[in-house]
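Changelog-adjacent note: as of this version, every example in the card shows the full chain rather than a window. The one below runs 496 residues end to end.
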Amino acid sequence: MSLQKHIFKVGAWTAASRVLGFARDMLFAAVLGAGRLSDIFLAAFKLPNLFRDLLGEGALSAVFVPMFAEHKNRAPRGPLFASNVFSWLMAILLLITVVALIAMPLIIWAIAPGFAIDPGKMESTILLARLMFGYVILICGAAFLGAILNAFSEFAIAAMMPALTNIFMILGLGAAIYFDVGATAIYILAAAVMISGIVQFAILWARIRARRFGLRLIRPRITNGIKTMVKRMGTTIVGSGFYQINILIGTLVASFQSGAVTWLYYADRMVQLPFAVVGLAAGTVLLTSISDAISAKKMETVYAQQNAVMRQSMMFVLPSMVGLFVLATPIMQFIFERGAWTHESTIATATAIMILCLALPAMTTSQVYSKTLYASQDVKTPVRTSMISLGVSAAIFVAMFPVVGFLSVPIGVVVGGYLKNWLLLRACRHRNLFQSAPSTARAITVFGALSAIMGVGLYVAMSAGMITGIFTLIVAIAAGGVFYMPLAYIANKKIK
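Full-length structure tokens:
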């Protein structure tokens, strides 16, 4: 399949979703600011997102897609295997939802104990989390349907689904502003999230039906395929679960500093923009592409795809990292500093962005290594590396919090990210699953040099007082792009 074409489609839809996400976050900051209400909503919203990462876009997709690639076009084996996995997923999600609704007070206390200091904050978070937890079934189901479509190289429709969540949340925030509902805004947002989940599931289900693939709910059965998948998922879930625990520890630590949960959320959103548009888009396509190549025992194709993705990804990620580092403060100030959002929140979030963005190269290249290991149906190595690196990150969270406060979280993320990247690379090389071409290293070096020059120019413009508002900020970013992109494009073409 055309690797660059599919990466472009996924990246374009991801970019559209992130632009809508910025609009949503601007409204969110204006309506809720960075304080009690925003902390309540973000802590409650974190729970369904954690389960989505764990059971939807995390362990299940990583294990399902390579296994499904072996017999996706073999009727009735392919549809029956997918239907059985889907039915087990729905049954497990229903059980999880029932248990979570009952145990929600304990869950919220575990992830945000600092909320108990503020009277009523814990109780409001518990109520909101219960109202939104049904989203778990919808979004995890939608993620599975998207994985099936990805296996058939239909990447675009699944990639556009997150945009719907942002659209519905924007509508919810708009309604909150129009009707001036005050604290009730968080419940309007919860309803918008639930509706978006229903719409996403319905659209993907309709597309699966249009393909006449034959996916349906059946009585779950324990087959050899399910046994193999459960065994691999068990290992992967340990790694994914360790990642979720790491996130929860970060939230727990941040909950003891008012506003910190929200500051970290916005910092992560900013850094996730280039990572999602480039890194995750490449990883999504690469998993399917490399799974097919490894299944066909075409290792030269695997190496060529890895190097192509590495070069293309770093050509965009390195200038993004430099741009975020230099322009973090004006970005937060001119985009978000209005309404309930204070200058203190701008500075705190910008500082977190400057630290977090340093992890972008490691986050992006880790996608190449981890997807390669999953495509080879090695689920143990990515889990081991995750456990080690995330354990180091969590230790930094806790150990450095008394010294630097909430900034211990981004520091831990950066250190853990580079450790994980190194461990994954070592594992791939040891198994002859990755070969870096000398031209790739040369190209990335040139991209880094050009990005540094661009960064110096942006810093000089900012220091000279040339960036005074949103318009001049956009002009500065565009000027950096005009300088960087043509030279990077030429370098990428010339370096063979």
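Structural remarks: The longest helix spans residues 299-336.
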